[in-house]
Design a protein that fits this description.
The chain is α+β, with helices and mostly antiparallel strands. It contains three helices and two strands, in the order αααββ. The termini are far apart.
Length: 84
């Protein structure tokens, strides 16, 4: 291996990029499969209440549920728009 070969940029093949994207999608689907059915409805309700006071879009609110053996934690992350 020459020094020039070491510094050459290696392009990813289309197949490897597609494989990485598919792995991300499958991972996302697996995490959502373990969530309770009420979580999407809860997120919509929370967004509706917050919109009464602050203009936000659906993607600015993230709801997640973490379970351990003895308890569950509901986490709500809201990206608030900057004050103008």
């Amino acid at each position: 291996m020459s020094l020039i070969d070491y510094f050459k940029a290696r392009k990813k093949t289309t197949a490897s990029v597609a494989k990485e994207r598919l792995q991300i999608i499958v991972s996302h689907e697996r995490t959502q499969r373990n969530q309770p059915d009420y979580l999407p409805d809860l997120q919509r309700d929370l967004v509706a209440v917050i919109r009464k006071y602050i203009p936000i879009s659906d993607d600015m609110v993230q709801v997640s549920l973490d379970k351990t053996d003895d308890h569950s934690v509901l986490e709500l992350n809201i990206t608030l728009p900057e004050a103008s």
